[in-house]
Amino acid sequence: MEYLVGAGLGLAVGVMATFVGFDRGRAFYPVVLIVVASYHDLFAVMGGSLPALGFETLGLAAFWGVAVLGFRTNLWWIVAALAAHGVLDLFHARLVDNPGVPSWWPAFCLTYDLTAAAWLARRLLRTRRVATPGHGVLAAALAAGALFGTAASAAPAAVEADGHAVAYQVQGQGRPVLVLISGLGDGMASFREVAPDLAAHATVILYDRAGYGGSGAPTGPRDAAAVDRELQALLAASGVAGPYVLAGHSIGGLYAEYIAAHHPDEVAGLILEESRPAGFTRRCQAAGLSMCVATPAMMTFAPKGAQAEVAALDASVAQVEALVPVVGKPVLVLSRAPGAKPFDRLWTQAQSDLAGRYRGAVHRTAPAGGHYVHRDQRAWFVAQVTGFLAAVP
């Protein structure tokens, strides 16, 4: 019975997380790993054994470290750790004398952990995400071996750009060429669900900026100018000729504005999805609102690329405000449904003002959903983008 309950509950949690959208964020399964690993400390307290508590805390610290590593680098580490934790439970009693562990726990935990690991592995494989070179590939091999008896992982596609490796994917073919630039804290996996739909109408390029996913760590300030150098080197090395339609989400839109203004001959159009306007932080703070910008403290456990981009945000804003916006190019602004809160009202107005920055820009508002329009309103987003691409000269 314990095996059935563990497998059933693991599957139910995985299905629910995917259906509701909990696992769209990178933190969900690392948190699951930490919670599962912490139960042995609870059992040690219930059993009143301080020696067991000490040993179990050491084990928890190890899994905690892997959870942080997986969150910040590659989620295949989490797959491997969940599978390893389940198998470890079969031998746990031989390693630690913990009187508080229920007799049914090893069987239950084994099947729950393996089911959770298998569900996460399924999710990662479906994204066709580029694996992180080195330890990411090792984690994938360990997880696959533990779960499926194989040790295969996808080979990364990467080029050297601006002093570090940049992971990327090219989907589809033909013209135009659409370059997707993700938001703060997100790599190319942010677009995993919409990329195949878009690739039916254009060549689509997805990539991880420095410090995200399969790309190398940032080696210097990560302002808009650095993002521009990185993307220019990637495009040149990819062999996919322009001109390009740049589609930026959130801070990716800020970068797209900079790149378009500096390379007008290489840009055929501009799509700004929930883009962060250059002057938004100043307007937000002037309105006396909170949470106007992510602080370095808030980004402690974020990918290194996100930390570096937040640290250089003021520089990026100044760079975009100082430039003359690209002219003579079609521009599409996509924003979320208006909200009633003061922050939401200011954001909605800022999106309208952003569209007004570009003569002839088209501004469309999603019928529902939040900041991730391409996830919350996938069909609507694809329809808007493909319609825009069809009209690009």
UniProtKB/TrEMBL annotation:
Gene3D superfamilies: alpha/beta hydrolase (3.40.50.1820). The chain crosses the membrane at residues 58-84, 104-125, 137-159. Residues 176-283 form the AB hydrolase-1 domain. The keyword Hydrolase applies. Signal peptide: none annotated. Keywords: Hydrolase, Membrane, Transmembrane, Transmembrane helix. GO terms for molecular function: hydrolase activity. Coiled coil: none annotated. One of its GO terms (cellular component) is membrane. This is Alpha/beta fold hydrolase.
